Each structure stands twice: as C-alpha cells, then as structure tokens.
TrEMBL record:
<feature type="transmembrane region" description="Helical">
    <location>
        <begin position="6"/>
        <end position="23"/>
    </location>
</feature>
<dbReference type="Pfam" id="PF04172">
    <property type="entry name" value="LrgB"/>
</dbReference>
<keyword id="KW-0378">Hydrolase</keyword>
<feature type="transmembrane region" description="Helical">
    <location>
        <begin position="35"/>
        <end position="60"/>
    </location>
</feature>
<dbReference type="InterPro" id="IPR007300">
    <property type="entry name" value="CidB/LrgB"/>
</dbReference>
<feature type="transmembrane region" description="Helical">
    <location>
        <begin position="95"/>
        <end position="120"/>
    </location>
</feature>
<keyword id="KW-1133">Transmembrane helix</keyword>
<keyword id="KW-0472">Membrane</keyword>
<dbReference type="GO" id="GO:0016020">
    <property type="term" value="C:membrane"/>
</dbReference>
<keyword id="KW-0812">Transmembrane</keyword>
<dbReference type="GO" id="GO:0016787">
    <property type="term" value="F:hydrolase activity"/>
</dbReference>
<protein>
    <submittedName>
        <fullName>Effector of murein hydrolase</fullName>
    </submittedName>
</protein>
<feature type="transmembrane region" description="Helical">
    <location>
        <begin position="148"/>
        <end position="167"/>
    </location>
</feature>
<feature type="transmembrane region" description="Helical">
    <location>
        <begin position="66"/>
        <end position="83"/>
    </location>
</feature>
Length: 236
C-alpha cells in the first residue's frame, strides 16, 4: 500500500503544487523574507522530502514531470500580458532593447574576464555563456559551444533562483521603482523564474520580463558563433 501511494503521480503533483501555494501564503505574510519565494521554497521542499524519505528521483518524476506539460502554455500566456501592456513597449522600446542587449553583452564580457582571471578553458566558457537564458535554449547553445550540458542546466536553475530570491531586494536597495526597468532586469538576468516573480509584482513587470526572457534567449543564440570564435582566440 505504501509503495502504491509513493509511486502515484498524483501524490507528487499535489506535493509540488502544495508546497508552492503554501510558500505563496507565507510570502504574503512576510513579503521581504527571501526564504519564502515560492519557487525556491517548493524546490528545496521537494528535495528535502525526497532525501528524508529516500525516494528516487525517478519516482518523483512520474508526477513531477507532468508539470512540464504546462511550461509551453504558460510561456505563451506571457504574450497576453505583453499585448495588454503594449503601450509601455511602444513608448520605451529603445530603452528596453538597449537594456536587454547590454545586459547580455555585459554578462558575456564578465564571463571572459573571469575566464582570464581564473584560467577557465573553452569547455567551461561554453558552459557559462547561456546560463541566463531559458533551459531549452541554454541546452542547445551549451552543446554548440562545447560546454558541459548537465552543468549548464544546473547553472540555469541556480541563476533563476538567485534572481527570483534577490531581485526585489536589489530593486529596493538601489531605488529601482520603474515597473518597466524591473521587468526587463528580471527577465534578462533570471529568465522564467524571474518572470514568475515579476508577474507577482505587477502586469507591467510580468509583460516586460516575458519580453526580456525571449529576447535574451534570441540574443544569446545570435552571438553564439561570435563567442565561439572569441573563445578560440583567447583560450583555444
């Protein structure tokens, strides 16, 4: 009976969604506590449950992976928020595009600076370059650049969680109150996870973050051949 319950896909769907909703309630009560960011809370909660009960990841995946089905529809839904807030895009498109492209270029430049300082090889550079894009894009870019794909996946998740947890605090510290700037920053730096938090901040932030998430991925793909050439020149 115990094994049948543990292996039930419904159980792990309920556990995952339940942890997320529970964290959302905690976040409403203690909005400034970074530990109660729903995505972080749910991820850590599931990991702890699996470790304590010694449950294989494959068992969790029977239900947990079902949630992946909703990733594409949820991403498409971001277009609805963008359409409703299109006037913000029309009025600020130059600043928005400059913000997205400069964010990608700055991130890429930092990776090369650190590679020179710490002696990273081409494989590690290829692993790090796509970490601010969504997982689907990051996998292809990492592979094309000769990176370590599993490590890229881990870095993408870590980057998203870091942005989701610290984003609001960074805005508060530096006095960034403009909703367009907040959304672009979240989407450019922490892809889908940042967009989830941006949606909670407001419709404008969610729409701009969704746009930035897509444009960041496109930009990283576009400059991938250039980064490959640059890597060969510097450390090849």
């Amino acid at each position: 009976m115990y094994e049948e319950i543990i292996e039930s896909p419904v159980l792990w769907i309920v556990v995952t969604v339940g942890l997320y909703l529970f964290a959302a309630q905690l976040k409403k009560r203690w909005p400034r506590n970074p530990l109660f960011v729903p995505l972080l809370f749910a991820i850590v909660g599931v990991i702890i449950i699996l470790m304590v009960l010694d449950i294989p990841l494959a068992t969790y995946s029977t239900g947990g992976d079902f949630l992946r089905f909703f990733i594409t529809p949820a991403t498409v839904c971001l277009g609805v928020k963008l359409e409703k807030n299109f006037d913000y895009l029309a009025r600020n498109y130059k600043a928005i595009l400059i913000g997205i492209f400069s964010g990608v270029i700055f991130h890429t430049t930092l990776i090369y600076i650190f590679s020179l300082i710490f002696g990273f090889g081409p494989e590690m550079i290829g692993t790090l370059i796509p970490k601010t894009s969504t997982t689907a894009i990051a996998l292809g870019v990492s592979e094309s650049l000769g990176g370590i794909v599993p490590m890229t996946v881990a870095l993408v998740i870590f980057t998203g969680i870091l942005g989701a947890v610290l984003g609001e605090h960074v805005f508060r510290i530096f006095g960034i109150n403009d909703p367009v700037a907040q959304g672009i920053a979240m989407g450019t730096s922490s892809h889908a996870m940042g967009t989830t938090v941006a949606i909670q901040q407001g419709d404008v932030q969610g729409a701009m973050s969704g746009l930035a998430e897509v444009m960041t991925g496109v930009t990283i793909v576009a400059i991938a051949p250039l980064t490959l050439m640059l890597t060969e020149m510097l450390v090849g």
